[in-house]
């Protein structure tokens, strides 16, 4: 297993996002990403989720409207201890030049320092966390 720090740079190639900072949180089960717009629509009687990730003021924001038929909803306790119903989607994550599929809940993280949180489900079996380090995925390329 690779060792990662408390913050890491990741890429989300299907969403056109490269080298964005993400906070590692072993206390969170599911990963999450900041999302201010999401809308579920019926198309030919099939539910389709439309969404935009990141905040328009974020330097990695690209304004793209994504859509998927493959989504679920999940009850999650937020960082303030309140239960929320969130949409959950999957996408590819690129770290240490390795690509793998991961699930993210779409949530309003505007009050948080990091727009992306990496939870235990994504980390388990792949990474160990050294809380004294940051950006080990970048340092390993040097």
Characterization of this structure:
This protein is mainly beta and 142 residues long. The chain has a single domain, classed as Acid Proteases (Cathepsin D, subunit A, domain 1, Beta Barrel), CATH 2.40.70.10. Helices cover 6% and strands 55% of the residues. It has two helices and eleven strands, in the order E-E-E-E-E-E-E-E-E-E-H-E-H. Strands 2, 3, 4, 5, 6, 7, 8, 9 and 10 form a nine-stranded mixed beta sheet that branches. A two-stranded parallel ribbon has the order 1-11. The chain is globular, with a radius of gyration of 15 Å. The model has no long low-confidence stretch (mean pLDDT 94).
Characteristic terms for this protein:
Cathepsin D, subunit A, domain 1, 6% helix, two-stranded parallel ribbon, mainly beta, 142 residues, 2 helices
**Helical content (DSSP H or I, runs of 4+):** under 10%
| Name given to the CATH architecture | Beta Barrel
User: How many domain units?
Assistant: 1
CATH class: Mainly Beta
Q: Output the CATH topology.
A: Cathepsin D, subunit A, domain 1
The unreliable regions are none
Radius of gyration, in Å, reads: 15 Å
Sheet-strand content, in percent, reads over 45%
How would you sum up the global shape?
Answer: globular
Report how far the terminal alpha carbons are from each other.
Answer: 19 Å
Helix count, per DSSP?
A: 2
Number of strands: 11
Mean pLDDT over the full residue set: 94
Tell me the CATH superfamily: Acid Proteases
Order of helices and strands: EEEEEEEEEEHEH
Secondary-structure-derived class: mainly beta
Major sheet summary line: 9 strands, mixed
């Amino acid at each position: 297993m690779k060792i990662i720090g408390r913050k890491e740079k990741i890429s989300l190639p299907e969403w056109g996002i490269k080298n964005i900072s993400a906070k590692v949180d072993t206390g969170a089960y599911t990963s999450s990403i900041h999302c201010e717009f999401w809308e579920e629509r019926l198309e030919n009687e099939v539910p389709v989720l439309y969404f935009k990730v990141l905040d328009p003021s974020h330097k990695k924001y690209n304004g793209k409207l994504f859509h998927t038929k493959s989504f679920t909803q999940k009850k999650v306790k937020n960082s303030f201890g309140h239960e929320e119903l969130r949409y959950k989607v999957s996408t590819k994550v690129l770290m240490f030049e390795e690509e793998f599929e991961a699930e993210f809940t779409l949530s309003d993280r505007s009050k948080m320092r990091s727009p992306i949180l990496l939870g235990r489900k994504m980390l388990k079996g792949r990474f160990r966390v050294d809380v004294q380090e940051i950006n080990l995925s970048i340092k390993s390329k040097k």
